[in-house]
Design a protein that fits this description.
By secondary structure, the chain is an alpha+beta fold. It has one domain. It contains 1 helix and 3 strands, in the order E-H-E-E. The chain has one helix at 11-22, and strands at residues 2-8, 30-38, 41-48. It has a 3-stranded antiparallel beta sheet with strand order 1-3-2, covered by helices on one side. Strand 2 (30-38) and strand 3 form a beta hairpin. The protein starts with a strand and ends with a strand.
Amino acid sequence: MKFISFTAMTNKGLDTKVNNFLSTLSEEDVIDIKYAASFGSVYVAIIYR
């Protein structure tokens, strides 16, 4: 199992980073995705094989 996290100031910026990363994996490789937002930033954590 591997873990990667992404941070951005906007949802659009985060979408770009996450989608670029996910395009390198197959659907079966993604185990879990978590999303969080706080004042001024958005975060995504991905657990994958």
